[in-house]
Amino acid sequence: MNWEKNVRRVEPYVAGEQPKAEDVIKLNTNECPYPPAPAVRRIAENLDCDKLRLYPDMNAEKLVNALAEYYHVSPAQVFVGVGSDDVLAMAFMTFFNGEQPILFPDITYSFYDVWAELLRIPYKRCPLDENFCIKKEDYLAPNGGIIIPNPNAPTGVLEDISMFEEIASANPDSVVIVDEAYVDFGGRSMIPLVDKYDNLMVVQTFSKSRAMAGMRIGFAIANEKMIGYLKDVKFSFNSYTMNMPAIEMGTAAVLDDAYFKEIVGKIIKTREWTKEQLGRLGFAFSDSQSNFLFVTHKSAPAKEIFLALKENNIYVRYWNKPRIDNYLRITIGTDEQMEKLVAFLEDYLKERKND
Amino acid sequence: MNWEKNVRRVEPYVAGEQPKAEDVIKLNTNECPYPPAPAVRRIAENLDCDKLRLYPDMNAEKLVNALAEYYHVSPAQVFVGVGSDDVLAMAFMTFFNGEQPILFPDITYSFYDVWAELLRIPYKRCPLDENFCIKKEDYLAPNGGIIIPNPNAPTGVLEDISMFEEIASANPDSVVIVDEAYVDFGGRSMIPLVDKYDNLMVVQTFSKSRAMAGMRIGFAIANEKMIGYLKDVKFSFNSYTMNMPAIEMGTAAVLDDAYFKEIVGKIIKTREWTKEQLGRLGFAFSDSQSNFLFVTHKSAPAKEIFLALKENNIYVRYWNKPRIDNYLRITIGTDEQMEKLVAFLEDYLKERKND
Prior knowledge:
Largest sheet of chain A: 5 strands, mixed
Distance between the termini of chain A: 56 Å
Radius of gyration of chain A: 21 Å
Shape of chain A: globular
Number of strands of chain A: 12
Structural class of chain A: alpha/beta
Strand content of chain A: 5-15%
Strand order of the largest sheet of chain A: 2-8-7-6-5
Largest interface: A-B, 87 and 87 residues
Order of helices and strands of chain A: EHHEHEHEEHEEEHHHEEHEEH
Oligomer: homodimer
């Protein structure tokens, strides 16, 4: 087909498997094991469906205002999108247009290089050290922008905020994005610092700690000027991204802070229990402050464990990639799910030893 | 701020006003005056909100399958997005990467040049003739792609399918997109021809004839290969664009064909009545086959009418742009709304004459 010569050819991002069977223990895409806040359901039940005939509020004011109030910033400092992936894609398009490569860790969210390839942005992966920690010096070289998750994924390693402050300070010519998808599970957000560093943007999501992956809501917080540029690009791409139910149900989720804190607390408790158990079984891992553990076993290869788990309807995430091909990323589920996981692993490792 | 030098600066698309007052007669953004199908409300009421904790089906299979069945194509020929704007933005990014300019009419959907500017795609506007009709010859010149709405907006002019067939045939090197946002109101869709022309893509939306602007659903139909390329780009931008309620409620809308036909029939009837009335009042307009009329008055300037209407809480759309600055685009509302519009205009024009 002749028209193919003008096609943008890309290697798309590969998301974790979404098994359709109902009886699966799904610990492979870092979803929340608990349902969204009860208020979210009430909004759905009473949704004014007649209003769906109208365009939604293109500024998603209700949701933006709720987030602004929650995070003590002005509404003009908040940008919302269809998941943090939408927010990040827009941010790459808006801010990463320099000649110099953008910088991100070699082991990190695997969408960053996909966006860079799609948008033809030069990029450089900076190797984490042997403990999967950021090497700050790498981010002091000339660059066209910086993006780092904190805690990082899939490693779960949380870095101190002071390191990001140093990086932001040292790079006044670059936008520095801190991807805080997992920050609610034990990290400290940099949102209070967006007024101090005019080149700092913080991105978060409703998909993990707010239990709304199915609703597709993410947001960015930065200074008004930066958010203004991001909006200009967004309104040049798709004016009405947030549908009416997302605006209404997302707002309800933000307003129920007690429920949010309750489920996050439960996940943290389960995570700490899981760490103890997996440690006992011979797994090593960094001290994850997210809703997942990134583990390697002293004797059993990760790929074998991954396949054995899958055969038993327990899904975790495995990447056949350099440096991490002997690791598994395990999402923290409910206590019951983690007990089943640990029981299975205990048996599996015992049998394996006896073989 | 130093980082500003790498910012993509753009002039965003300006959507029609969305007045917040409740008592407004809103005829300015081509929304449907009727609510979505009753089945859509039932889905909302019974939404399994617990499932919102999980990522939605990234392939939106349920919705894709419903559309494939409805339009007699295979599911692999269907692409869905967050409104047809999302679908079109992705299509621009995927297919319009040549050296030659892409072509579209000078009077048309005002997002086309915004996408071209955003994505730095060279483009050329081809002037419509004095009756706002496409001049076919313009689209036989070398180009990097073609996009034309049918019926065109904001003119409402419907072109014969044979013209698009000629354009597609004559441009095997280019992807030809026919934007059928308004086709359900009296046009003939080119969907049955996507297997005949391997460079043809048809785009439609749920925002007009399916009364779901607030839900943000659009779709493209083409051959499998073209849809495959579009998906590769989409999955390099945002894997999970369609949220769970959009998939579920959109599917319900497609399945209720009787309701769809009923509301479209009502809008067409109201449109024809409105044509008669406006003709009687001295307005001229092309024979619109969409859910709006694009009108000019023999003596009263469009801008004055626009402001007078607005002052009386009747919103229509006016553009202060070359060639169309003496026109108004009036969405077809309910019978009652159009009666009020006509009554107001009748009085207004009478008074104006007497002044």
